[in-house]
Specification:
With about 160 residues, the chain is mainly alpha-helical. It has helices at about 25-30, 30-40, 45-55, 60-70, 75-85, 90-100, 105-115, 120-125, 130-150. It is built from 9 helices and no strands.
């Protein structure tokens, strides 16, 4: 199994290799992880929530959903993989658990960046803050995460 670090979501622990471009995503995800995805759907933006609900709750294939979404199968599959990686990541659950104790600004930045999956630039535009301010909050969140999880994830060796 390939452990991946996506920069926003942490280690997903799900295999997303070159062979993942074909076949049914539902069959590759273990039932326990699929259940975790379903439980976290309410926190996602509406578009991602609808797509993941269709795939993991309604058992619809991405191939079937692509024409309805107005995009190609490849683009939709990529969106599903990105959302899955984020939802199953350690930072997603960390932000969900801790954001209530943060300031309003930090909470909003954390939600947009880690939960909704927006880039730093998109987060800055949405909040009306500078890129610098958003980066500073992101760095503070990363520092808190690293302190609680044994150091920077990018320097830890993942065995598996």
């Amino acid at each position: 199994m390939l452990h991946m670090e996506d920069g926003r979501g942490g280690e997903a622990g799900v295999e997303f290799g070159a062979s993942c471009g074909r076949g049914d995503l539902r069959r590759r995800l273990p039932p326990a992880l699929a259940e975790r995805v379903v439980l976290r759907l309410e926190h996602l933006p509406e578009e991602e929530r609808a797509i993941l609900r269709s795939v993991f709750v309604d058992n619809r294939a991405v191939k079937e959903l692509a024409p309805l979404a107005g995009s190609s199968e490849r683009v939709l599959r990529r969106k599903v993989k990105r959302a899955l990686s984020r939802v199953l990541g350690a930072r997603f659950s960390f932000v969900l658990e801790r954001r209530a104790s943060w300031t309003v600004t930090r909470r909003r930045i954390a939600t947009l960046h880690y939960i909704d999956g927006m880039s730093v630039r998109e987060t800055a535009a949405r909040t009306g803050l500078s890129l610098h301010a958003v980066r500073r909050h992101r760095d503070a969140i990363e520092a808190i995460f690293d302190a609680e999880h044994g150091g920077p994830a990018r320097f830890r060796r993942v065995r598996g």
